[in-house]
Structures are given as C-alpha cells and as structure tokens.
Design brief:
The complex is a heterotrimer. By secondary structure, chain A is mainly alpha-helical. In chain B, helix 11 links the parallel strand 2 and strand 3. Chain B is of the alpha/beta class. Chain C has a domain of 80 residues. In chain C, helix 3 packs antiparallel against helix 4. The radius of gyration of chain C is 28 Å and the shape is extended. The mean pLDDT of chain C is 88. The chains are: A mainly alpha, B alpha/beta, C mainly alpha. Chain A: Keywords: Membrane, Transmembrane, Transmembrane helix.
Chain lengths: 281, 393, 248
C-alpha cells in the first residue's frame, strides 16, 4: 500500500466491472518472475530459485510440446494415421474419399483387379513407408532402449546415424560456404595501385588496407599452425602478429555487441516500468 | 604389434571409401547414360502413381477409353499420346516429339494385348517420367569446385593420417587451454569442490559438440583419478546419454566405476535460456572450482562465464562460434579458439593417427595461404579465371 | 480413428518389445556392437555428401534431403524421452528423499506437467498454454537474455585491470568501437588533443572493423572449417569414436 501512496500506479489485477483480468494477472506474474531472475545478480535467493526451477520445468514442457506438435506429429504420427485409415477404407470398400495419393492410386489399381498390376505398387509403397516412417521409428525406439541396461547398446545406431548425418553435412557445407567463399573474398586486387596516375591517396589507402587485411589473415592462420613451434624468423613474428589481429577482432566484436545487449535490458525495463508499473507509456 | 594390426583395419575403411565413391560416380554415370535409374528410385514410382490417379484432370484418360479395360492397341497408343501431351505441358523442358518416339518404341516391344489399360497407363507415364528423369544429371557441375577442393583437402588429411601409423613422432605445439585441464581438475580436488562441464547447446550432429564430448572423456579420466565430483548439465538428451557413456567409460578405465554417478550427468531443458538459468543455479549452489565450456555457444557464453568467475572457478572455454569467442577470451582463464577445439582430441590422446590428421590440417592451411597469395597476384595481373573458379553456387 | 491410433500404439509397443528382446539376445555380438554402428555413420555421411552434389532439379535431391531431415527429427524426438525421464525421475528422487531444495523440485515438476498437459491437449492455440507461454516462458527468457547487459559491463570492467599486451589490445579495440557507435563517443573523442581534430572515432571504428575484424574472423572461420572437415573425416572413417563410450 505505501507504494500506491507514493504515487505508483501498478497494473490492476481486477477489471473495472469487478471481474479478474487475465492480462493483469499475467503481467504481475511476469513482473515477479522477471524481478526474481534479476535478483540473482545480487545473490542466490528464494525468488531466483523459484523462478529458475519454474523456468526449467516450463521450458522442458515447452520443448516436449514443440517436439510433439512440430516434429513427431507431422513427420511420423499423421502420415501413419493417414495410411492406416485409407488402407482400412479401401479394404472395407467404404465410400469415403481417400486422402493419400499413394492409396488413391492403389484404389485405381484395384479397379483393374489384377494382382500383377498391384505388385510393383505395393513393393514401392512398402519401401517408402519403411524408409520414411518405420525405420526412423525403430532407430528412435533404439534410443529409448537405453532405459534397459542390457539393451542400451542399441542406442549406438541412432547416435551413429545422427553423427554421420552431421559429419557428412559439415564436410560439404563448410567447404561450400566457408572455405571457398572466404578464399574468394580474400582475392584483393592491387591493380589500381599500378595503374595510378600521379599520387592518389585514396587508392594508396585502399591498397594499404587490403594489404594489412591479407597480412593479418595469413598471420592469424599461421597462429593456428599446430605441427611447428611458433619460433624462428617467419613463424615467430607472424604468429605474434596473428594473435594481435585476433585480439583486436575480439575487442571490436565485444564493443559492437555491448550496445545490442544494453538495448535488451532497456526492453525489459520498458516492460517493468511501462506495462507493470505504468510509469512510462 | 597390436597397433599395426589395428591400423591395418583402418586402411580397409579408406579402401571402402574410395570404392564407394567410385561406385557412386559410376552409378551416376550409368544412370545418366541409360536412364535406367529412374525406375530404380521410389520417387519416380511415387510420381508415377500419383500421376496415374484420376485426381489430376490433365492426365485423365479420354472418356471412351475408360469404358473398355482391354482396349485395342490403337486405343492404347492414343491414350499414351494423351498422357505424354499432359506430361509435356506439365514440364516445359520435356521435348515432346522425342519423348513420344521413345514411348512408342518401347510400347512396340510390349505384348500390349496382355496388359490392362491401367497398366499401360502407368507404363506410359513411367516412360514419360523416365524420359523426364533422363534430362536430370546426377552430378551438379556447378559444384565441381567443391568436389575438387574437398578431394584435395581430404587427400592431404588422409595421406598424413595414414602415414602417421609408421610411428613417426610428430611435434605438436603447446595449447595452453588443454594443458591447463589437469591443473584445473587438480585445483578442484585440492579445494574439495566439484568440476563443471558444459558441452554447449547443440545436439550431437554438430562436430563441436563431439569435440567437446571427447574432451569430456579426458576430464572424466582425471576426475576419476582424483575422485572429484564431475557435473555435466546437458541441454540435449542425446548429448546427455552420450556424456553418460563417455564418463562411465572413463571411470571404468580408471577402475573407479563405484564412484561414477549417472545422476550428475543430467538433462535440464532444450531451451537455451532455461538451460542457462539452470546451470547458473548449479554454479551458485555447488560452487565448482573448475568450469569447462566446450562446444557450441551463443548468447549464453558470457552469462555462464561471468557467473563462473563470480563463484571463483578456474575456467577453460572452447568454441568455434566466431561471435562468442571474444566473451570467453574476456571472462575465462583459457580459451580454445576455433580450430584449437578440434585439435584437442589429438593433443590429449597423442594417438599417431589423430596427430597425422592435425598435420594434414596444417598442410591445408599452408595450401590456403598459397592459394590466397596466388589469387591476389593473378587478380592484380587482371587474370580472373582463377578467382571465378571459387564462386560457389 | 481411435482404432487406428490403437493399432499404431500396439504396433510400436510390440516393435519396442521385440527390439529390447533382440538387444538383450545379441548384446555380445561384437559386429553389431562396434562395426555396424560405424557403418551406419559412414553410410549416412556418404549419402548426405552424395546428395550435395546432385543438381537440385533432380527429384532425388529433394527426396534425400526430405528423408534425412525426417530421420533426424524422428530420432531426436524419441531421444527427448530419455532426457525427460532423467529430469523427472531425478526431481522425484529429490522430493522423495527430501534432499536440499526439494521444494523447488515440486515447482519444476508442476511447471513441466502443467505446460505439457495443456500443450499436448490444445496445441499452441490453447488459452492456458498461451498464458504460460506469454506470461512465464517469454518474460523469463528475455530477462535471462537481458542479464547479459550487466555481464558485458562487468566483463569489460575486469578487462580494464588486465595487464598483458593482448588484453590491452582487446580493450583498446573494444573502447574505440564502443565510442564509435554512440554520439557521445565522437564528442568525447574531439577533446583528445592532436588526434581528435584529424579524424572521427567512428571512422577509426569502421577501419578496425573493415580491416582487422574481417581478417581475424576470416582466419578463425578458415581454421575452424579445416577442423570441421578433418573431424568429420575422422568420424566418418571411424578413427574418432570416443563419443560411443565403452568399447567392450
């Protein structure tokens, strides 16, 4: 109450008519949780622990919901439901429209009423269902088999599949998107310097920058050299300069990010001071 | 002696790789030449079947043909033409006359009388598809630069990897962050506090996570020797189960399987910041004396590193995320920058083959520097074909 | 509809039971335990590499891409179950054994089960799920993110006291770039004698960014790419398999 006496005008929980406002309650809860998490900056306390455990619980639940609705349902459950439903309708001869194109074409094959014509269709259909749904589901179940210590080794198969996928994709995408592109971008041309008429400082400056860039790049790459000690006439100074370049890079990106992070903080304070305390509009 | 035998087995993999690569190339070439591959893959069959469905009005058979399921050869030929016309309309790059000639030739060899209309229908569309597929290549020539660069780099890496087994001792420079692992675990033991290992926020399909997990094996070996608690909060359940396996193995090898606690390697949540909140809580309560952050990190890097510094832990971080390295450098005692993270496996195990790979990487770097210098020289001389070769599609 | 769902559930339960049986029976097979998983890994990698070189017009390109992403999605969806079992059992243990802070484990489990219940029942559109998402999940997430602002400041402050040459370079670059990004920076810069009059701090910041940041980031990227490629190569060929854990 003293806060209200001081002129604070918190977001009301009750509506003018007397009912409870969902938004009002929500904003209060959000504000308390926000302050709870900020309180961790001072020290570990009851509010932080409460918010932290709630956050972990809610976000784990959210992960499950997201995984189920976004991945498992569209890529496994729904297609299998569709197939089994259509299959059932076809063999019972129900006058229900068949949804799946595969099933639809099977139905048209049935009109021909010869086993031979159905054979290749059924074969490819089985291959497709197995490859797209049954096999990954088996791999997924192998993962869950970790619950039983004697069968836990089965989880190596899904793990190997995922690791293999990641490695394969990594080789080609890094070659494609990083190596070739970055090398191409480093091909600077010093031609303007040679074709310069008189003394053009802008061209000289540009060429000097380019030279510094390439030099910095090469030295920084040399810093990553593992199989030789960073000593001697070339490797020693080069890797030293490489470290400097890297440190300047880190400092610059640090400096760039500071401002972006502060704007996040301003966003949260806008919520606390505006939506909750209603001090600023 | 046993090592020689072990390495010999590995060489089979290389052979397998080469053979497979050749067979793939050969298959692709054969497929292109004959067009036979079109019927081999389920995709074609699916399109075929979908096209055969009367749902698409374009490809629907004329009404008079529908009645007679054992139509005459003439009727079937008309039908096939109809189908092909529809296919030609559907795909602009199909040359209609050519495709029609192909189907007619093919049908002439078939005992048409014995087929049902539906079969012929499907057959015709399949042939159309086959023709359609033949216009496709199995190799994208625009990406040949990636292939060549890949073969070049991989052959360097492969060469040094397989030459390493001759037993030549290879030098490897000191990597401060990796040398400090033992020191950090030792310090935690002296203080009687646990060690915290954070394997990043990505799943096992990222190489950085795998690199992090292989360092975890080394850290776990040390904590098993010193009998120090090792906490591994994970953000992916696959990473959790892998970490459990790796740590159990390390404790088993150290003969301390009884002090292995599976519940210390726990899953928190997949959510980035929920995970950070949880790890921060663990840090505040358990007060670890050594923190390891090895893997993929995003904005949480600094939150973790600063909280860790606040509780007074010695911190070793490593990531290849360019934008997060600055924060680790600023807030941690040691940072593995980019490639150093991947070198960890070789550095810690000192296995000849792993060291050989590292040597291959170094040759790759040398090659890159040479290519860059060459490119600059050629570009300055106004020769552009070299730099154009690097354009990616 | 319930019939099909029931059929599917029974199918998966039978499949799972069969897998467990097979897993327990064949657990001593060295071929299945060691070599076949490595072959899986290799095969998967080669297929993905092959797919990259197929032209996008070829239907096979799309088909393999589709298939592989579906596999990964389905496997990681199932894998999540293991993590959640670990989370729930651990917190149940905490409560039942009355460990320190067990009260908070109740909060965690409550948050988890309530979110899961409403989320699975209504999908993303449900009123209750929406409430949890908008007034608990999102605010906590953005608050945790915004804590970075404090930490950036404290990390920068600590860097001020650093004495090594490298740390000084890092700090100098950071300060220049920070000054260059705000109006106030230019004003402060202009008071510096001699240098301040010749060029603006934002130009200097841009120059650092154009030359040094580009060079440094490119070097890290190129080095890391080689690391990626070599590590992937080792993994595909089975040289690096520490992630499998025990060898026996």
């Amino acid at each position: 109450m003293p806060l209200f006496a001081l002129g604070f005008n918190f977001r009301p929980v009750f509506e003018a008519g007397g009912g409870v406002s969902t938004e009002g309650i929500g904003i209060w809860i959000a504000a308390i949780l926000t302050l709870g998490i900020y309180s961790f900056l001072y020290k570990d306390n009851f509010f932080y622990k409460f918010s932290e455990y709630l956050f972990v619980g809610v976000s784990a639940g959210y992960t499950l919901v997201l995984t189920f609705h976004k991945y498992l349902k569209p890529s496994l459950i729904e297609p299998l439901q569709e197939y089994s439903r259509d299959f059932y309708h076809i063999i019972t001869g129900a006058s229900v429209p068949i949804v799946n194109p595969w099933m639809l074409s099977w139905q048209t094959h049935l009109v021909g009423n010869q086993f031979g014509s159905q054979f290749s269709f059924i074969f490819w259909f089985a291959v497709k269902v197995f490859l797209f749904y049954i096999f990954p589901a088996i791999l997924g179940l192998m993962m869950i088999s970790r619950v039983f210590p004697n069968a836990a080794w089965l989880s190596r198969f899904p793990l190997a599949t995922i690791v293999g996928y990641g490695s394969g994709i990594m080789i080609v995408t890094t070659l494609h998107a990083s190596v070739l592109e970055q090398i191409k971008a480093s091909f600077v041309s010093f031609a303007p310097l040679f074709h310069m008429k008189g003394v053009d400082w802008s061209i000289i400056a540009q060429s000097a920058n380019d030279f510094l860039l390439v030099l910095g790049l090469c030295c920084a790459i040399i810093y990553f050299y593992f199989s030789a000690e960073h000593k001697g006439v070339i490797l020693g100074p080069a890797s030293n300069f490489g470290i400097w370049v890297l440190m300047i890079t880190f400092g610059a990106s640090f400096g760039y990010t500071v401002m972006a992070r502060i704007s996040l903080l301003i966003g949260r304070f806008q919520f606390l001071l505006g939506d909750w305390m209603q001090l600023v509009k | 002696m046993s090592r020689l035998k072990y390495n010999h087995k590995r060489s089979n993999y290389l052979l397998m790789f080469v053979l497979l690569a050749f067979s793939l190339l050969f298959a692709a070439g054969a497929a292109r030449a004959t067009g036979e591959a079109a019927l081999e893959n389920p995709q074609t069959a699916e399109v075929t079947a979908a096209a055969a469905a009367p749902a698409e009005p374009d490809i629907e058979a004329p009404a008079e043909l529908k009645i007679d399921y054992n139509g005459s050869p003439e009727q079937i030929k008309t039908l096939c033409e109809h189908v092909l016309k529809a296919r030609a309309l559907a795909s602009k790059d199909l040359e209609e006359t050519e495709a029609r000639a192909l189907v007619m030739d093919s049908l002439a060899q078939l005992p048409i009388e014995k087929l049902t209309l539906a079969q012929v229908y499907v057959h015709a569309v399949a042939l159309g598809e086959k023709r359609f597929d033949m216009s496709h290549n199995y190799f994208n020539p625009k990406r040949s630069n990636v292939l060549i660069a890949g073969i070049l780099l991989l052959s360097f890496i492969g060469y040094f990897t397989y030459h390493a087994r001759q037993g030549k001792d290879m030098f490897i420079r000191k990597i401060a962050g990796l040398s400090a692992i033992d020191e950090a675990v030792g310090r935690a033991t002296e203080m009687g506090k646990p060690v915290l290992f954070v394997p990043g926020i990505y799943d096992m399909d990222d190489i950085q996570t795998i690199a992090g997990v292989s360092i975890l094996g080394h850290v776990a070996k040390k904590t098993a020797e010193y009998e120090t608690n090792l906490l591994v909060p994970c953000t992916r359940s696959l990473v959790m189960s892998t970490s459990q396996e790796v740590v159990r193995e390390a404790y088993l090898k150290a003969g301390r399987i009884d002090s292995f606690k599976a519940e210390n390697i726990r899953y928190l949540t997949d959510d980035q910041f929920g995970y950070v909140a949880g790890v921060d809580g663990i840090m505040m309560r358990e007060k670890p004396a050594a923190n390891f952050y090895l893997g993929v990190f995003f904005a949480e890097s600094l939150i973790l590193a600063e909280t860790g510094h606040h509780v007074g832990a010695i911190q070793i971080a490593g990531t290849a995320m360019v934008h997060q390295i600055p924060f680790f450098v600023a807030a941690c005692d040691y940072t593995l920058i980019g490639e150093e993270l991947f070198a960890a496996s070789a550095y810690l195990t000192r296995e000849p083959m792993q060291l050989g790979t590292l040597k291959g990487q170094d040759v790759g770097k040398f090659l890159i520097i040479i290519v860059i210098v060459l490119g600059i020289v050629l570009e300055t001389c106004g020769i552009t074909f070299f730099s154009n070769w690097f354009i990616t599609h | 509809m319930a019939l099909f769902n029931g059929f599917l559930i029974v199918f998966f339960i039978v499949l799972f039971a069969a897998l467990i049986f097979v897993g327990q029976t064949l657990r001593t097979s060295q071929f299945l335990r060691r070599k076949l998983p490595l072959a899986f890994c290799f095969f998967m990698g080669v297929i993905i590499i092959f797919q990259f070189f197929i032209p996008p017009e070829n239907p096979l390109y799309k088909e393999i891409e589709d298939l592989s992403t579906k596999w990964i999605q389905i496997i990681s969806s199932f894998a999540l179950v293991i993590g959640l079992i670990s989370l729930v059992t651990m917190n149940f243990n905490k409560i039942s054994r009355k460990y320190e802070d067990w009260q908070y484990a109740v909060v965690l489990l409550l948050g988890f089960f309530v979110t899961t219940f409403y989320g699975l029942r209504d999908g993303f559109e449900g009123k209750e799920f929406d409430f949890i998402f908008n007034y608990m999940y999102v605010p906590m997430q953005s608050t945790m993110f915004s804590i970075l602002a404090f930490f950036v400041a404290s990390a920068a402050f600590r860097a001020f006291r650093a004495r090594s040459r490298e740390a000084t370079l890092l700090l100098t670059a950071a300060v220049i770039v920070m000054l260059g990004r705000v109006e106030l920076g230019s004003v402060l810069w202009s008071y510096i004698p001699f240098i301040g009059n010749y060029f603006d701090v934002s130009d200097l910041a841009q120059w650092i960014n154009k030359v040094f940041t580009t060079a440094g980031q490119r070097a890290i990227l190129l080095g890391a790419s080689l690391g990626y490629i070599a590590a992937s190569f080792k993994i595909l060929l089975g040289i690096e398999r520490s992630y499998f854990g025990s060898e026996e």
